Amino acid sequence: MIKEALILLPLISGWALAASPDDGARPSLMPTSPAVPHDSLDALRHHQPDAATVREREIEEYGPAWARREKEQQKAIDDLYQELMRRSAPYAAR
Question: Domain boundaries in the chain?
C-alpha cells in the first residue's frame, strides 16, 4: 500500500500544481462577488433568519392576501385549541 502511495504521489502533486493559479494566490472558499445575494451568504455561513425576517420574506413571496389568510387560519386554530382546553379543564382537575 505504501508503494502504491509513493507511485501516486508525483501524479497527485503534479495535478495539484497544474490546478493552482499562476500568481500563487490561494482561491477563496467564500464567494466574493457582489452579485451574490446576502441571503445566499447567510445560508452558506449557516445563519438562521429570525421569525420577523421569515415573515417579511413570506409576504414578499406570497403577497399580503396570503398573509391575511394565514393569520386568519392561525387564529382559528388558536381559538379551537383554547375551546378544547376550556372544555377539558374540568376533567383535568379530577
Answer: 36-94
User: Are the C-beta atoms of 67 and 58 separated by less than 8 Å?
Assistant: yes
Q: How far apart are CA 52 and CA 60, in angstroms?
A: 12
What DSSP string runs through 43-58? HHTTPPPPHHHHHHHH
pLDDT tens-digit profile of 11-47? 666 655 555 555 555 555 555 555 556 667 777 777 7
Number of C-alpha atoms within 13 angstroms, CB side, residue 36? 9
The label of the residue with cell 494566490 reads 25
C-alpha cell at 25: 494566490
pTM score, two decimals? 0.43
> In this structure, are residues 55 and 47 in contact, taking their beta carbons and an 8 Å threshold?
no
